[in-house]
Amino acid sequence: SRGKNEARRLRVKGLVPAVVYGGANEPAAVSVDPKEISRILNSRTGHNTIFQLSVTGASDTPVMIVDWQHEPIKESLLHVDLKRIDLSKRITVKVPVVTLGDPKGVKLQGGIHEIVTREIEVECLPNDIPEQFEVNVAELSIGQSIRASEIPMIGSMTLVNPGDAVISHVVSLRAEETTTAETGGTT
Q1: Which of 133, 121, 116, 124 is closest to 170 using CA atoms?
Q2: Torsion over CA: 22, 28, 29, 35 (sign)
Q3: Which of 7, 93, 166, 186 is the most buried (most CB within 10 A)?
Q4: pLDDT tens column, 1-22
């Protein structure tokens, strides 16, 4: 069943209302265990985790968490959107990007390391979704950057983001201070 009253009844029972959609089947209202959903969201693969959903009267279906809502004060889960996944078709997902190392431009040249993009979109088969991309930034000097096209795509992966999107770069602190001093002195 659907509706505000049914959602309240489910939450009192310790369950959370959810909707399953996608594929050839019609959208269906289901209830899920919030502890299991939280465990999946806090796992290493997070919302990109594909798991089997058991629905009474239907066969198990591979699904992925697409959206979720938390209660703002108590942080309890209020609602979950699940998408049916066809394991033979390509899907688009956002994958976290993690930087490794300390850039030379920071240690030796006094620059600032900025992480511009913390996740990138890739298209791949569901079984090829990586947990994260790791990017070594140890060799970056001031004025250098790492772009999305430099992240190696393996298996069935293709990059959806523009290739020139900056992931991480090192900028000069001195240039910013000089600019501020010049504008401050002319005022």
Answers
A1: 116
A2: negative
A3: 93
A4: 566 777 778 888 888 898 998 8
Residue 83: strand pairing partners: 21, 64
Let me know: does 55 contact 20? Beta carbons within 8 Å.
yes
> What is this structure's pTM?
0.74
Helix-strand-coil split of the chain, %, nearest 5 = 25, 35, 40
- Using the Cα atoms of residue 127, residue 70, residue 121 and residue 150 in order, give the sign of their dihedral: negative
pLDDT at 156: 87
Q: Which amino acid would we find at residue 143? A: G
SS (H, E, C) 56-100: CCCCCEEEEEEEEEECCCCCCEEEEEEEECCCCCCEEEEEEEEEE
Backbone angles phi, psi at 128, to 5 degrees: -100, 10
- Rounded CA-CA distance 50/126 in Å is 8
